[in-house]
Amino acid sequence: MRANPLPLEAGPMSRTTPRAETRMPMSELPPSEEPMPIQDTPPPRVDSTPMRRGTRTRKPPAYLADYQ
């Protein structure tokens, strides 16, 4: 195997630097990127009724009334 021609240097994203140094703390974020708390927004209305009801709850057509 050949030796790597480039020497291994500790760059800003290399494994030798601790992970905390590569991350940006929350206090240094610009104000536009800070997460805004959601206020005065009601939860979306969830319609619990199904799109189509079962066939047993509906009245049968007139031509089927004799067979029931």
Q: Could you describe the 3D structure shown?
A:
Residues 1-68 are annotated as: Disordered. The chain is mostly loops and 68 residues long. Helices cover 6% and strands 0% of the residues. It has one helix and no strands. It has one helix at residues 19-22. It is elongated and about 90 Å long. The model has no long low-confidence stretch (mean pLDDT 62).
DSSP strand count: 0
Question: What is the succession of H and E elements?
Answer: H
Terminal CA distance: 86 Å
Poorly predicted runs of 5 or more residues: none
Measured as a percent range, the helix fraction is under 10%
Shape: elongated
Question: In DSSP terms, counting alpha (H) and pi (I) runs of 4 or more, how many helices?
Answer: 1
Strand fraction: under 5%
**Mean pLDDT level:** 62
Global structural class = little secondary structure
- Report the sheet with the most strands, covering strand number, pairing sense and barrel closure: none
